[in-house]
């Protein structure tokens, strides 16, 4: 699944949206080869969904 980062969004908020907890931050970071916590408005992230 893809997510386009909106204004004022960060990895924490995106993680809460899809995973309902902070554990998704590292999953999103690793899946998208991100270094650090910075994301920008308009950036498209791939969200790994759990089965």
From TrEMBL:
Residues 1-47 form the LysM domain. PROSITE patterns: LYSM (PS51782). Pfam families: LysM. It comes from Bacillus safensis. SMART domains: LysM (SM00257). Transmembrane segments: none annotated. This is LysM domain-containing protein. Gene3D superfamilies: LysM domain (3.10.350.10).
């Amino acid at each position: 699944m893809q997510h386009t980062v909106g204004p004022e969004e960060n990895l924490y908020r995106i993680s809460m949206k899809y995973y309902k907890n902070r554990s998704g931050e590292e999953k999103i970071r690793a899946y998208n080869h991100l270094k650090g916590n910075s994301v920008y408005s308009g950036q498209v992230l791939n969200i790994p969904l759990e089965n």
